[in-house]
Automatic annotation (TrEMBL):
Lineage of origin: Eukaryota, Metazoa, Chordata, Tunicata, Appendicularia
Kinase found in the keyword field: no
The protein, known as: ZP domain-containing protein
Residues covered by the ZP domain: 1-132
Xref: InterPro entries: ZP-C, ZP-C_dom, ZP_dom
Entry keyword set: Disulfide bond, Signal
Keyword Isomerase: no
Source organism of this protein record: Oikopleura dioica
Length: 132
């Protein structure tokens, strides 16, 4: 079974306003690698934290049908058949996670959405920025 996933992988650079011209085609069960970073930021003291990430079957982040992946900067227990692994979150300029590809029954696409927090290494408080 093949699923169409509209998001970015670690090898695809895009900003929150970019849209893929073609959907990435991944099969259920394949490993999806996701990386979120700030473009053109070279300061080594910048830290990106994924506060929450979720998937929806359509582009709207507020869609009624959603699958939570990360909440309060931690992976949701049991999500993605226990394959979700947060590789890096809040300790560098790039936050990364990976997990098995899935699909919503009755839908062709999966959209990923994340809310991130950006801080400097010596600051406890960051500003929330929405990134899709």
């Amino acid at each position: 079974m093949e699923s169409s996933l509209r998001s970015c992988s670690c090898s695809t650079l895009m900003s929150s306003k970019d849209r893929l011209k073609e959907a990435l085609r991944l099969k259920e069960g394949e490993l999806l690698n996701v990386g979120v970073s700030l473009l053109d930021v070279t300061d080594p003291n910048v830290r990106v934290t994924l506060q929450e990430c979720w998937a929806t079957p359509e582009s709207s982040p507020g869609h009624d049908l959603r699958h939570d992946l990360i909440n309060d900067a931690c992976g949701v227990p049991g999500v993605l058949d226990n394959t979700l692994d947060i590789v890096s979150n809040g300790d560098s300029r790039m936050a990364k996670w990976h997990g098995s590809v899935f699909k919503f029954v009755g839908y062709e696409n999966v959209w990923l959405h994340c809310n991130i927090k950006v801080c400097f290494a010596d600051q406890d408080k960051g500003s929330k920025i929405k990134k899709r």
